[in-house]
Every structure is written in structure tokens, then in C-alpha cells.
Amino acid sequence: MAFTPDLYACGIDYVGVSNLFSFMGTIPPYWEPFKVMMYEMVGNPEEAADSILLKEASPVFHADKIVKPLFVAQGAQDPRVNKDESDQMVAAMKARGVEVEYMVKDNEGHGFHNEENRFEFYRAMDAFLANHLKNIPEKVDM
């Protein structure tokens, strides 16, 4: 939605990475052997060239381009995608007056594992999509 803003009617962000700097900073010490591979795949935030690429690829730095409604779901205890990332994205959207719904579950980590939370998430997501996709034509000619 940040890079092709006219392509979508709305979006769902379910524990999604929006800031690659924050994400790379959450790599735990026990993943140290994996860290080198992560730097090769994603980029090393401490290297100038990689830092530029990480900023270009992080949606939070392009939130000003998002124009369609967004539903964000986040676990407050997520060790991989820090809640601050979602907070940043939601704040940026609200500051610009773009519709954003935010669901935070205090007892969840990366993904909702509690059955009640999953059902609540799916009901909210279904309602969000039903609301924002109701005026979409069934078939689009290309």
C-alpha cells in the first residue's frame, strides 16, 4: 500500500514488519549465527548502502503515500515485530486522516495463538474487508 497506493481498496497488516531498522534490531543473541545470513538477505543497518535500501523498503518511511484504509493487528509481546513499529504506522496514518483500525492483543506475540483472539481478529478483519470491498466490481477488464 505504501509502494502501489492505487492498487488496493484497503489493506491488512497482521504482525507485519513496517520498519526494517526496528526489525533487524530485534534479532536475539541466540540467533547470532543466523544474523550474518539476515544481513545478506535483508541488509545491515550499520552499513551506509544497506541503510539507504532499508529505508527505501520500510513502509513506515512511506506512510505518507498510503491513501486507503488499513487494518493493523499486533501482539504486544511480539519479539520479532516490535509493537512500536505498528504504533509508528498507525500514528502516521492517523496524523494524515487516513482511516486505520488498530487491534492490539496484550497476551500475544508474533501471531495470535489464543483461540479467542484469533476469532476476534478474523471477525474484525472480515467486517473491515466487507466494509471496504463492497463497492468493488466483481470483474475488472484489463
TrEMBL record:
Domain of life: Bacteria
Keyword Translocase belongs to the record: no
UniProtKB keywords: Hydrolase
The Peptidase S9 prolyl oligopeptidase catalytic domain, residue ranges: 3-135
Gene3D superfamilies according to UniProt: alpha/beta hydrolase
Nucleotide-binding is among the record's keywords: no
GO molecular function: serine-type endopeptidase activity
A single GO BP: proteolysis
Coiled coil location: none
Name this polypeptide is given: Prolyl oligopeptidase family serine peptidase
